[in-house]
């Protein structure tokens, strides 16, 4: 129900202020959001939306989850920040829990950061350290995959493939090369004793949700080990339960095998804090962990008590409420439903990380709108009360809160044909008027 709070600033007014002070820093948002609860958010005009984006794979528990609110509130009221000259109970407990869930061997360590980019900066530094420890002095190359996304800070950007993200900021840190994604032969051809590390998203999110042929990740594991390079998994988007296992490299649907593919380092962020900023880099085993020595790297806020208390609340709640199984089951149901919609040409689904390719439904003559069908469906979704996301002109990416219910999932499936229809009808009308 639409309920505008008396005296509260209007959405149009707020968007006007945004336009004069913030546009140019971020994109142009069409809504000001004021409140969230579970899988719903409300805008400044009181309109409700079902959230199929989850803050881009962040809101693991949904909005304003009582366990997360309580953990953060209590921690902030007890001990909020201490710097890394000290440690705290939540920081230690979250590190222990992550190592346990990652089945990391004795001697593994966790470095806490504040974002995915920052976690990947730490991983890149780890790779550099590994290279510099090599007596040959020649182990300086880092391999990343085409279509990868690892973040927007300069080091993370240097490992990110998309030319339009990179080119405005060149020169980027050097030594990073891209190889065809999902191609074990290409990886083998690029690997030799000059490679310090290979970084891979077990499921690429920003590219439109792409996994790999069965066995690719294990091949990457075997090949990097053979050539003495580190294998780094960027699980910023795919981790923390998103695909229905704690981490995607443990998911048989991702790896094609029952046993996890264990990396040398893994980065996390997004869902780990459930909305509170936190990042982490886990280094597996004592040898890799020893590459970064105390004081070599740091960050003021990393692992602060509030963020780590949030992380613990997220992991506890996922475990206690059986969310991994729910993600597994509901993701499959959603993918089945979406796959049967006329106009959907492909569904790539790993738990509740879902890429949906769309085209004009059969028998419809309308040309595709400028900018593509998917961004237009996102806009139509907003009008119909959905937060959706497009990763390209014809690809929708869904990454809803893990607590999404069957009812909401089924409703999106039922509404997608009318969203497509609305887009195409509006476009046809515009087309007719112009001609
Ligand atoms: N790695 C991956 C795989 C991501 O999807 C993202 C964010 N989309 C990042 C890194 C960067 O994370 P952040 O925006 O928190 O810096």
TrEMBL record:
Pfam families: Aminotran_3
Chief localisation class: cytoplasm
InterPro entries membership: AcOrn/SuccOrn_fam, Aminotrans_3, Class-III_PLP-dep_AT, PyrdxlP-dep_Trfase, PyrdxlP-dep_Trfase_major, PyrdxlP-dep_Trfase_small
Binding site for N(2)-acetyl-L-ornithine: 152, 299
EC number: 2.6.1.11
Compartments, as annotated in UniProt: Cytoplasm
Co-factor note (free text): Binds 1 pyridoxal phosphate per subunit.
Gene Ontology cellular component terms for the protein in this record: cytoplasm
Broadest EC class assigned to this enzyme: transferase
Pathway linked to the protein: Amino-acid biosynthesis; L-arginine biosynthesis; N(2)-acetyl-L-ornithine from L-glutamate: step 4/4
Reactions this protein catalyses: N(2)-acetyl-L-ornithine + 2-oxoglutarate = N-acetyl-L-glutamate 5-semialdehyde + L-glutamate
Single GO term (MF): pyridoxal phosphate binding
Binding site for pyridoxal 5'-phosphate: 149, 234-237, 300
Cofactor: pyridoxal 5'-phosphate
Keyword Cytoplasm listed: yes
Modified residues (N6-(pyridoxal phosphate)lysine): 270
GO biological process terms on file: L-arginine biosynthetic process
Misc. remarks from the entry: May also have succinyldiaminopimelate aminotransferase activity, thus carrying out the corresponding step in lysine biosynthesis.
Quaternary organization: Homodimer.
Family per similarity comment: Belongs to the class-III pyridoxal-phosphate-dependent aminotransferase family. ArgD subfamily.
Protein's recorded name: Acetylornithine aminotransferase
Organism this protein belongs to: Citricoccus muralis
Gene encoding the protein: argD
């Amino acid at each position: 129900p639409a309920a505008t709070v008396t005296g509260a600033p209007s959405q149009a007014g707020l968007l006007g202020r945004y336009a004069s002070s913030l546009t140019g820093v971020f994109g142009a948002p069409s809504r000001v959001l004021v409140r969230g609860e579970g899988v719903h958010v409300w805008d400044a005009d009181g309109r409700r939306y079902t959230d199929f984006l989850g803050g881009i794979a962040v809101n693991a528990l949904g909005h304003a989850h009582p366990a997360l609110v309580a953990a953060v509130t209590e921690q902030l009221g007890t001990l909020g920040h201490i710097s890394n000259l000290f440690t705290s109970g939540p920081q230690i407990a979250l590190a222990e829990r992550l190592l346990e869930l990652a089945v990391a061997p004795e001697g593994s360590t966790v470095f806490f950061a504040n974002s995915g980019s920052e976690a990947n900066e730490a991983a890149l530094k780890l790779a550099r350290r590994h290279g510099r420890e090599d007596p040959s002095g020649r182990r300086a190359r880092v391999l990343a995959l085409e279509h990868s996304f690892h973040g927007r800070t300069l080091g993370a950007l240097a490992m990110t493939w998309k030319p339009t993200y990179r080119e405005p900021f060149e020169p980027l840190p050097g030594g990073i090369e891209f190889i065809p994604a999902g191609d074990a032969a290409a990886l083998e051809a690029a690997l030799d004793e000059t490679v310090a590390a290979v970084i891979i998203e077990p499921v690429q999110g920003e590219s439109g949700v792409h996994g790999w042929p069965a066995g690719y990740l294990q091949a990457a594991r075997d090949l990097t080990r053979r050539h003495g390079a580190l294998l780094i998994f960027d699980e910023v988007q795919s981790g923390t339960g998103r695909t229905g296992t704690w981490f995607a490299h443990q998911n048989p649907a991702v790896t094609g095998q029952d046993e996890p593919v264990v990396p040398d380092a893994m980065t996390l962020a997004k869902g780990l804090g459930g909305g509170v900023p936190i990042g982490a880099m886990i280094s597996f085993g004592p040898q890799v962990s020893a590459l970064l020595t105390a004081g070599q790297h740091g960050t003021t806020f990393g692992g602060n008590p509030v963020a780590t208390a949030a992380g613990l609340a997220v992991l506890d709640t996922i475990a206690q409420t059986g969310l991994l199984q729910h993600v597994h089951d509901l993701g499959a149901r959603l993918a089945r439903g979406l796959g049967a919609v006329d106009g959907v040409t492909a569904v790539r689904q790993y738990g509740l990380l879902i890429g949906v390719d769309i085209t004009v439904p059969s028998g419809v003559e309308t040309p595709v709108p400028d900018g593509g069908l998917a961004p237009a469906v996102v806009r139509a979704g907003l009008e119909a009360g959905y937060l959706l996301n497009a990763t390209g002109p014809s690809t929708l990416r869904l990454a809803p809160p893990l607590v999404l219910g069957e009812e909401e999932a089924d409703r999106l499936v039922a509404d997608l044909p009318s969203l497509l229809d609305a887009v195409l009808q509006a476009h046809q009308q515009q087309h007719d008027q112009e001609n």
